[in-house]
From TrEMBL:
Residues 5-130 form the B12-binding domain. One of its GO terms (molecular function) is cobalamin binding. Keywords: Cobalamin, Cobalt, Isomerase, Metal-binding. This is Cobalamin B12-binding domain protein.
Length: 130
């Protein structure tokens, strides 16, 4: 009997055009046995949620290096709730100031991973919670 693989959507929200980190995380999650869907650049919260629902993912990983995380991450959580998909765990990563993290967590982001976080820690976090 095969174990069901964790399905993760990695998304680049907003006008952020830097995706190296998202691609590194995507590969690390694949290497850990997860099924990863990568949205590509410049996705709206609505597009991210639509893809998450269509792909039946358990986790949405949001990446932001543009400074727009406060405007882009919370709407993803809210839209998932509105679509009866509140059970989808949303995590975030990128260049996010420490002072912004409490607000993002209060808005429903499960965890924020900042530069220097090991991919092993991200894999462990997801596996322990899904």
């Amino acid at each position: 009997m095969s174990e069901q693989r964790i399905r993760v959507l990695i998304a680049k929200a907003g006008l952020d055009g830097h995706d190296r980190g998202a691609k590194v995380i995507s590969q690390a999650l694949r290497d850990a046995g997860m099924e990863v869907i990568y949205t590509g650049l410049r996705q709206t919260p609505e597009q991210i949620v639509e893809t998450a629902i269509q792909e039946d993912v358990q986790v949405v990983g949001l990446s932001s290096l543009s400074g727009a995380h406060m405007q882009l991450f919370p709407p993803v959580v809210q839209l998932l709730r509105e679509q009866d998909a509140a059970d989808v765990m949303v995590i975030g990563g990128g260049v996010i100031p420490t002072d912004d993290i409490p607000y993002l967590k209060e808005a429903g982001i499960s965890e924020i991973f900042t530069p220097g976080t090991s991919t092993e820690d991200i894999v462990k976090y997801i596996k322990e919670r899904v």
